[in-house]
Write a structure and sequence with these properties.
The protein is 49% helix and 21% strand. It is α/β, with parallel strands linked by helices and 387 residues long. The strands form four sheets. It has a five-stranded parallel sheet with strand order 2-1-3-6-7, sandwiched between helices. The longest helix is centred in the middle third of the chain and has 67 residues. The relative contact order is 0.08.
Length: 387
């Protein structure tokens, strides 16, 4: 029977005659065999055969003065995918339990029937095959999801930029017609067409910045800002965009709140959150917003690994709209995920705000329940006015 490299077995036994006989038997069955007579030799073989490590190790439970169970544990640490089968002359239940508790996959008792041993090895390699197939399936799933995400990104970008190019192209065509008239067209009309085209270009630039924010690669210009002033600015900008059915409930901070942050990107992030709140309210209702200081102790759930405990400021946008299920909250920051129709957005809004928060040293937290509204908190490191 031809040898198959994927069916490798390491025999570890201090009885050289027994090890030799066992090796000969398994080689006749097509296994590729390596033999060690002590722990040091076994560990050296496993460490040296990284690319072709044995799939199964048959380890004698007593190796002279060495403990085979302890060796089995050490071999598993060196090579986690190695399946260890203990070989023991003691057919007691405590011995078997001790080996299995130490991480052994199975055990066989001397003297053993060759068919029983081969059946045990067969189960070991069947498990290896299943693990390999599962790993392949998981990798295919990851690739499929990556391709799906890229496809959604491409479709969203193409949709948005196609609309912007249509605006630019349409205005330039009309402008060309005005210029070619004899006499030339109305200068006021031409100025309006140019302004519309430039506005579409600005929207394209903003969309590019949004994509950079998702990847946390946008260039930020941080400076010391008064967050209450930022909120006033955003409210002024948002009134027209939110619509007549939305009222803004501005909460007054109990003390000044300052942060070193890119003010323009902060305003864009807050506006994004307010527009999401408007959609959750279906255009009718109140949005509450405000800024407040927060002192976060070590171990606070909102502190991520790279966020030290201490003084933070919280910018809160809250609505009493439709709310979100836990599953939606969990996926809300994923790029391209959206509960809105495809034509209503690319699913980059919250991912953009989250990317900005993380790039600024903070975090974005969502608290929501279906039918009970949503509270979104943008946490940023606090700064004193003299920083």
């Amino acid at each position: 029977m031809p040898r198959r490299a994927e069916r490798r077995v390491l025999i570890v036994d201090d009885d050289q005659d027994f090890a030799g006989s066992l090796a000969a038997l398994l080689e006749m069955e097509g296994y590729v065999i390596a033999v060690a007579h002590d722990g040091a030799g076994a560990k050296a073989l496993v460490e040296a055969m990284a690319a072709e490590a044995p799939g199964v190790a048959l380890v004698d439970i007593r190796l002279g003065r060495e403990d085979g169970v302890a060796l089995a544990t050490e071999l598993g640490r060196i090579r986690p995918d190695l399946l260890v089968v203990m070989v023991t002359a003691y057919a007691s239940v405590p011995t078997a339990i001790r080996a299995l508790q130490a991480g052994a996959y199975d055990y066989v008792c001397k003297p053993f029937d060759p068919d029983d041993l081969l059946a045990t090895l067969g189960r070991c390699f069947d498990r290896h095959a299943l693990a390999h197939e599962r790993a392949q399936a998981e990798e295919l799933l990851r690739r499929s999801r990556r391709l799906e995400a890229i496809g959604r990104l491409s479709a969203g970008i193409a949709h948005d930029f196609n609309n912007l190019l249509a605006v630019v192209g349409g205005n330039l065509k009309l402008l060309q017609e005005e210029v070619l008239r004899d006499p030339p067209g109305d200068r006021g009309v031409m100025r309006e067409l140019v302004a519309d085209a430039l506005g579409a270009v600005e929207e394209g630039i903003a969309a590019s910045r949004q994509l950079l924010a998702v990847g946390r690669a946008q260039p930020l210009l941080p400076r010391l800002v008064d967050l209450d002033h930022v909120l006033d600015q955003v409210i002024h900008q948002a009134n027209a965009a939110l619509g007549a059915g939305i009222t803004l409930d501005r909460q007054v901070a109990r003390e000044p709140c300052h942060a070193i942050v890119d003010a323009r990107q902060l305003e864009a992030s807050l506006l994004n959150l307010m527009l999401n709140a408007r959609d959750a309210l279906d255009g009718q209702g109140a949005i509450r917003l405000g800024a407040e200081p927060r002192e976060l102790a070590p171990g606070a759930p909102v502190l991520l690994d790279d966020m030290p405990p201490g003084a933070y400021v919280a910018l809160v946008v809250e609505d009493a709209g439709c709310g979100m299920t836990p599953d939606v909250v969990e996926r809300a920051f994923h790029p391209f995920f959206s509960t809105k129709p495809a034509e209503s957005g690319s699913g980059l809004g919250l991912a953009t705000v989250y990317g900005f928060a993380r790039q600024s040293g903070g975090n974005l937290v969502i608290e929501s329940e279906p039918g009970a509204g949503t509270r979104v908190t943008l946490l940023l490191p606090a700064a004193t006015r003299g920083t």
